[in-house]
Design a protein that fits this description.
Elements: H1 3-18, E1 41-51, H2 55-66, E2 71-75, E3 96-97, E4 100-101, H3 105-117, H4 141-154, E5 157-161, E6 163-171, E7 174-181, E8 184-195, H5 201-205, E9 210-211, E10 219-225, E11 237-241, H6 249-270, E12 274-277, E13 288-289, H7 297-302, E14 309-312, E15 320-321, E16 324-325, E17 337-339, E18 351-353, H8 362-368, H9 371-391, H10 400-409
Helix pairs in contact: 2-4, 2-9, 3-4, 3-9, 9-10
Length: 418
């Protein structure tokens, strides 16, 4: 720091102190020097590539790493957590149904640690709530993002922010994926891909079939006017952005511009201070894959236990429209399951998905898309991909019992155990 700049800062501090203002404290840390950081093109070889570091992708990557696979997690934004962090829907339910916990494992581990570090409270799962949202878990979205990074590091997962696949081709033993970021072109050679992009973007790049309605559910832009938002303690104000579409960068940009413009008008009209604003719209619906199995709303509402069920899901049928939302609760005792084949694009090998792009019809998806269920899917794909990579096979050829056993050893709840 030059002497002129040092003198300027010192005089500024003295001046603001005289006005009764304070300067926030500053701490310092040094980022590591990356080898070959100036080189624009790099090539990496891993067992498992996870694309998308949101609700499902973060858990998939941690699980694959803990199962012994080498893992790269590619995320186009600047943090992990997706809907919970960047979108701000920081109440990831539901982990319980009818008086007992039905989803646990790595996602629950991360949520519990986040709540404990924030000195928050967990709901009593032994008590059946009158309304489903009474058992939502409130988390501090900022803590969750950095705890997720810590768990990735502990599992040996490498993270690449600001990058996204531009091309995917099949090669001997797996895939070659060319990712692009600013100043970076990364070629990834991997044995398995887990697509956790929300809209099955990798599946789309490969030209495999995807499902989507002409009209999507509205997105939510979360903000707070007039009073401080307390992360992990309360919900934020919600603006429905009708027509919000996360299909591509252009449609996502339009949703964000529309949301921010409307919130600015609210600030001017209300005369209240804008206290909190999420960086982007939270999207509910986009493409879904056409999988080896498609979960129908009847499968979901009847609690069908699939032969290859790998986790539970629990939430009302929850379709948001221009006229609002009227959740359709599941009948007492009903707990839906998710089959492994619904996470495998039809006719594919060495490729899985997890999250809201699960193979399902629209009404079933409106219940399946919530975060706890996406965490369960993510953990299951992490196990299946790791085992397939280690054995030189494809996920559906890994014995289901082996997948269940490894999931149990990492704390997951398997439907066959109920």
């Amino acid at each position: 720091m030059t002497s002129n700049r040092r003198n300027f800062i010192q005089s500024s501090v003295i001046g603001t102190a005289g006005l009764g203002l304070s300067i926030a404290s500053t701490t310092e840390v040094n980022a590591s020097n990356l080898p070959r950081a100036a080189e624009p093109e790099i090539t990496v070889d891993v067992d498992v590539l996870v694309v998308g570091g949101g609700t499902a992708g973060t858990i998939a990557a941690i699980q694959a790493g803990r199962a012994g696979a080498s893992v790269l997690l590619v995320e186009r934004n600047s943090q992990l957590g997706g809907t919970m962090t960047t979108g701000g829907v920081a109440f990831p339910g539901l982990f319980d149904a009818w008086g007992k916990q039905v989803i646990a494992g790595i996602g629950w581990e991360l949520v519990k640690e986040c709540v404990a570090l924030d000195e928050g409270q967990l709901p009593n799962f032994a008590k059946v709530p009158q309304r489903h949202w009474h058992n939502q878990v409130y988390i501090n979205q900022f803590l969750y993002a950095i705890l997720a990074e810590e768990k990735c590091a502990d599992a040996g997962v490498s993270i690449a922010y600001y990058e996204f696949p531009a091309a995917v081709i099949q090669i001997d033993g797996g895939w070659q994926v060319d990712c692009v970021g600013f100043g970076t072109r990364r070629r990834v050679r991997c044995k398995q891909i887990i697509d956790c992009t929300g809209g099955a973007e990798v599946v789309g790049l490969l030209g495999l079939p995807r499902l989507r309605e002409d009209e999507r559910q509205p997105g939510s832009f979360l903000f707070m006017l007039g009073e401080a938002h307390e992360p992990g303690r309360n919900q934020i104000h919600r603006l429905y952005v009708h027509g919000a579409d996360s299909t591509n960068s252009r449609t996502a940009t339009e949703a964000n511009l529309t949301g921010r413009k409307t919130i600015l008008n609210k600030v001017r009209q209300s005369g209240k201070r804008l206290m909190h604003l999420q960086p982007e719209t939270g999207f509910r619906e986009s493409y879904r894959i056409q999988g080896e199995t498609l979960i129908t709303v009847h499968d979901y509402t009847s609690g069908r236990v699939f032969d290859d069920a790998i986790c539970y899901a629990f939430y009302p049928v929850d379709l948001h429209t221009k006229t609002g939302v009227k959740p359709q609760p599941l009948k007492p005792g009903t707990v839906p399951t998710i089959p492994l084949r619904a996470l495998v694009p039809k006719g594919s090998r060495n490729l899985m998905v997890a999250g809201r792009c699960v193979s399902s019809d629209r009404l079933a998806n409106s219940g399946l898309r919530v975060q706890a269920s996406c965490m369960g899917m993510g953990q299951a794909t992490g196990v299946a991909a790791a085992l397939a990579a280690q054995r030189g096979t494809t996920p559906l050829e890994v014995p289901l019992g082996d997948i269940h056993d490894l999931l149990r050893s990492h704390g997951a709840i398997i439907p066959s155990d109920a």
